[in-house]
Each structure stands twice: as C-alpha cells, then as structure tokens.
User: Fold this.
Amino acid sequence: MATIFYKAGGAFSTLTPQKVVAFSWAPNMSEASAGTDIGTVRTQEFTPNEAGDCEGVFIALSTNGAFAAGTTVTVKLQQYSGGAWGDVAGATVTATQSDILSTHSGYVAGYLMGHYFELGTAAAVTTGASTWRWWIQASASGQVYLRSGYSYGVVLTATTSYSSGDNIVFRDGQVFTIDQSITATTVATGVNTHLVWDSTPAASYTLTVTSLYWSRDLRLEVGDSTNRIPYAQQAIINIANHYFGVNYAVPIQNEISLYGEKPTSYYTTLASNAAASQKIITTTDDMSASWVATDVIDVLGANSLNVGYESPTISSISGTSITTVANLTYLHYADFVVWNFTRASRCGIKLNGTGSMAGGQFHTWKVSGVFVDSGCVMLQCTSYGAIDTTRFTPYEIDTLIMQRTTTLGPNLVSYAAVTAVTTAMTGTHYQYIFMRQGDWGNSKGLTIFNGTIDHIYAGNLGANATFYISYALNSTISNIQSGGSGSGTYDPLLLSNCVNCTFTDMRICGGAGGYRIYGTFILNTFTRCHSDKATSNVSLTVNTIDTVFEDCEWGNKSAGTNNIDITSSTYQRVIVKNCILGSTNDVNNYSGMTLGSYIKIDTNDQVANNHTCYFKYGVTQSTGAGLTDTTCHTADGLAIRYKPENSTNSLNDWQFTIPTGNIQNKTMIVGIWCKIASANYYSGTHQLPRLTIDYDDGTITYVQATETTDWQLLQLPFTPITAYGQITVSLSARTGAITTNAYVYFDDIVVTYPTSHTLDSGSLDYWTDALPMSPPISLGGSTASRQHITLSRYLRASGG
Assistant:
C-alpha cells in the first residue's frame, strides 16, 4: 500500500499522482481540542521511505477560535548535519491566512485544515534516519495549531500511479472528478477540496474508503438537481469511518449534495385492515402494473408495541389485492403505508458501510434519490454555533430509502444553533423518507426551520430508540407514520422544541409514549393525528403551552392505558377538540400538573356537548340532555359537574369576568343553582360549594351551599364602593369524598344589575390589565325590566 498525492484537480482517471514518502495521519483527529500552538517553533522529524526531490508537505492544521488576518505560517525543510540542524537552502514556504482558508472565511476552534505547503525550491532528500525534519511556526501565538499527532504527508516531485488500497491525499482548493471506482485506505482532504462525481458516468462506480478525513469546507457532490445519477450507473459510496477534526460541538462548514435517480411507483396505503394469520392485503391503489411476484414489501401499522412492520414477499398481485408468500403475523391497520422495498431501493445513489457523519456542520445538505444500505449512519450532521450565513442553504431531503440505520440527521446540539441558522434555513424541506429499521440505542430525527416535513415513514426504530422532530420553528409537518421501538418501551415519535407548528395526518402504532412532547413546546396544532397500541398515546413530559389537538383518534383501534400521560411538575395548557379517545384513562397524572394547568377536552369522543376539563385538583364535566350524566336544573339543558379530588385545596379553576360598568354604591346580585350529589360529600373533610366574587379589583365575598342534596339557589349580593367596572366570578368545591360522592352540579347562572343601570363597556372607558374590559359591548337604555324579570324568577324559585 502506497500513499499518493493529487496536487491539481481534474478527472481522477486522467490524473498522475505524486509520491508521498512519509505519511502520518492520526486517527485521533476527531477530537475537539485544537492541538499544539505553533506560535512557538515546532519541529517534526521524518524518514522518507524513498529518496528523491521533496516538493512540499501536506499538514493538518487547526485553530482555537481565532485566526486573524495577517497571520502567516512558515514551513522549512531542515537537515541534520555536523551535529546540528540547519535550513535547506530554498526549501522554505510562507502561507497567509487567506492561503490556508482558501476562498471561504470564518474560523472556529478545533476544525481540521489540511493545507499543502509547496516549497520555494524542491530539495533532494535521502532515506537516512534522524536526518530530516520540518520546522514550522506561525507569526503569532494563539492563532494556528498542529492537530494532535502532528499529521503530515511528505511529497516528492516524482510521480506514480494509483493502485487499489492506497492512501490518497487531495490538495486543498482543488476540484477532483470521480470518473472511476476508487478503493482507498485513508483519504485526507484539504480546505475547500471538492470531490465531484462524474455527472454522466459511463458505468456504476464505487468509492470505498476506510477512513475519510474531512477538512473544513470539503464539498462532496454526487449529481445535482438537473443531472441525477441514473440507477443504471448507480454511484456506490462505502465509507467506514468519517473524521472531522471536531467532536459534535464545532462547525466545519462542509457541503454535501447527493442527487440520484428517484424510484417510482413504490408505495401505497392499506385500504382496510390486513388481518393476522392470512396472506391477503388490499391497497388503496392498483400497483399491479409495476409490482411483481418476488418483490419484498414493508407493511406498517402492526398491532404490536415493538414490531412496527412486517416484510412479506409478494406471491401474486391483481389490481388492489396482493397475496403474500407467507401469512402475516400481526394485524395491520388501514391507512398505514405499504411500500415496495425492492423497487424503492433502486435509487441512483447507494450508501454502504457503517461510517457516521456525526460531528460535521454542513452549509449545504441536499439528499435526494439515495438508498442507505444496512448499517450506514452517514446522514447525520450536527449544527452548532457560528456559521457563514451567506453559504448556509436550506437543508433538503427528497426520497431517502433507508434499510437499516443507526441514526438520521440533521440535528442540533443546542438551542443557540437555532438562533444562528433560522433565517438562513428558511425553506427547509424533508419529504419521502422511508426508514425500514433502526439499530439499538440510537434515535433518528430531523431538525426543521421555517419549512416543511411530509411523508416520513419509519417501520421499526430499534430497541431503546425513537424518531424525533426537533427545533421545529414555524413549520408544517404532515403525513408521518412511525412504528414501535424494538423494546416496546420507547416512543414512535418524539417532538422536541417545537414552536408555532402544524402537525397533520400523522399515524403511530406501538411503543410506550406515543407522541412524546419534549423540550420547549408552544403554540402548536395537531389535526388528524392518530395513535394506537401505545401505552400512552400522548406523553406530555414538559411545559406544553397553547397546544391544540383536533379531530385525532387515540386508542380507537387498539386501546392503550392512557390517552394523555403527564409528567409531574409540568405546566400544561392543552385543548383537545373533537377527538376520539379510546384508551382506558383519558388523562393520567393530571394532579401532578402545576397549579393553573389544564387539559380541556372539547366534544369528547365527537359527542355533541360532551366536554371535560382536567385541573390539578379535580375534573369538571358537562352534564344534561343527551349525555351519560343527565343531571341539570333546567330540563333539556346543560349543567357543569365538579368533581373535586383534593380535601385540602379547592377545585376552583373555572373563573370568568363579568363587565359591570360603574355601579359604585349600587347593589348587584349574582346567583346560581347548585346541587350536591351525595350527603357523603359533607360527611367528612370538606368545604361546601361556593360562589365567590372579586369586586372593586380585590374585595372578595362569597356565599356557600347548605348541607342538602336538593337543588339550592346560591345568591350573592354585593355593593362596590369604587367605579371599577368588572367582577370576577368563581365556583369552587372541596371534599375528601371520592367518585360520585364528590359530585357537585352548577346550573342556570343569572346576573342581576342594579335597577335602571345601563351597561356601556363598549365605550372603552373601563380598563383592566392594561386593556379595555371585555366584552366591549353597549346595551342601550335601562335594564330595569329585564332585571325585574330575572329577580322575580329568583324569588319564585326560592318561595319569595
């Protein structure tokens, strides 16, 4: 195995490399530290394995967060002679900051900068030991470093030829076109090196590399949006190890563009449930024109906590009916995807190997028409900190087929990265990602900025793994399907740090936590997002603010334990509208929420007037005509039922304001009918139900019920002494009784204004909390007659 150096760009098959006679490229170059400061003179001995004229040296440099303009780096070839080291005449070169950074600007601690120092005059070197060394120094300290291990390659003027398995060094700032298959042990690249696949390949080429070292600004380009690599000339990339010179936390501003031919007619959905222990699958689309016997298909939506999908082989297909070779093991639910793995894998680009791109920041990250074979984790990239926003373009995935992968990117390692790239990343788009199966212990996910995600399908995530969408800001996410984790104890979908996003038409099946909400979660809306066979369909593990679920179905086909599970000590402000909730418990651990939290379920199970609210200290429920509990004061009407669940703290979360206008020194009455369901309510620790009014912006008064299970009228008169134009009304109950013994009903609230009082909050003359009082309405004329009728009703009802 030889080491060879390509100095000038061009088509690889036509290039003549130069010999490298001393080569040390340290595998620890993935560490985050910058290395050794060369503001002080550093030297490195080397012994050539062949004599010849030394033209220069390729050196791995780095920075420590600063590389000021005007800084230079000088390299000299020295020879040991007569008991001392001396400079070789003419064998000196000085590089400026712009020479090393090439055409791009910016620098951050730790990244790899491969640079070729070509000597002013080539110098003859021998194979003598302890005879030759490099002398290197920067013009200032704290600017430039040698990567740990003093990685370098000594280049001769003599040429050679490429052989399979060689180490290859590509010079910085050059464009190299891959127009043949290449197998290399180590590939070292320079700053702003471009590796570009032949856009019109004559055959299928394979790039096989044991260790690829990414210098900053390295660009890997395989096809483009208008010149995709055809499947017939498939580009096969097999990289076992990627080294970036950093470890997750630092950007190196790389670019990757992979555009292959996209497969066609490779997915549909189940038109109806596919039963277990049988071979017939009915799809929504007729795929018989393209799908054939022996094709392997993946059927998602398995009724299992941990399986997620099955991969039967087609025996025959006729119209929308598919017969498989073997019976399905599990029931699979309608509307889940069926995709033809055999056809889907026919992409123009194929990624093999086990190499991970974790640790690199990519200013360009375009992936389209790519098939990821077993074990490859090439597609994770990490963004962090400072970036060059003039080069940062929206990330894009369009048709990515993944057989087995331990991770998928991009992702962010800190929220600071979001603020740096949100504007530059506007328009990010990920679509048509099919993930067959993941490996143990790793998550797969996407970061999205002001963009869209649609048609993402994950069969099985592997044990202890989840699919996540993180840092989704102002984005639209739709048509996501995810199966169970390999262990059944992790979550099909984790949503982290999402703000002002819409989630539509998503389906998950299996796993522990269903839709797991994690990280900052504010102003998000879910529509038609279904979950089945999960232990909990929605897991609220963090503060979830102003989030709405609408027209969703949870546990409707296969019930779990909880529709919603809440982590203790979190603040929740969640509304669930017109959803079907099929699991055993609607909301679990709501008593663990912080005070002021709520889960409001509007039109529960899509039943008209069926409303439930969960608070820290209990539950409220609509009752009356057409509902399970028909209790109400007015026939054919509705009432609200309180179920307090804490004997120390009252359930009093329903509070509302009523505009009064200026009723200074006038008496007003608020009344409501109340019914205690059972004498057991007041047989132990309790507080009788109360009607409480806050008037004059802080004066509190209340009236409470008596110990009876009959309907009783609670009337509370009060006389404000200020012109403050609003009151706050609350209803409360507290008892140590449980279940139905704790029930309290309230109905028919009536507000009686003072006689001849005119309400005019529409004038905007009354303010609270820095805004006009609400509702801003004007009721012209006297309200006396209306109040008389209302008061008469109270009197008749109370026997007056």
In short: The domain at 267-344 is CATH 2.40.30 (Elongation Factor Tu (Ef-tu); domain 3). Helices lie at 97-101, 341-344, 415-421, 784-798.
